[in-house]
Amino acid sequence: MSAAPARLAPRPSPRPAPAPARPQLRVVALHRPEASRVPYIGLLVAILLVAMLGALSLQTSMAATSYAIRNRTVELTNAQQQLEALSTQVDQASAPAQVMAKAQELGLVPSDGVIYIRLSDGTLIGGS
Fold this sequence. Notes:
This protein is mostly helical. The protein is built from two helices and two strands, in the order H-H-E-E.
């Protein structure tokens, strides 16, 4: 006998009975819907609109204040001019020559001297 082992012929394997047909299965990726960008964009637009309306209202209020200041400045200038005019009239009316003319119109005559009354005893001082 020889040292090489004898090779046996392969035996046909018994075939198992065919299994019932199973549907083909496959791996499905988990479906995660993307977050909608609409709320984010809406928020940004809302913030932008609020900022623009705020700036517009601030600008409008500043313009109104500017007009009010201008009107008050014009009123102040007019009041100062009126004050100067009245002050000039008072100065002219209180001039000694003007006072003398007005007194003569009213029938007053100039005094020969000034007389003072001493209140402690009731005596007249000065004059002729």
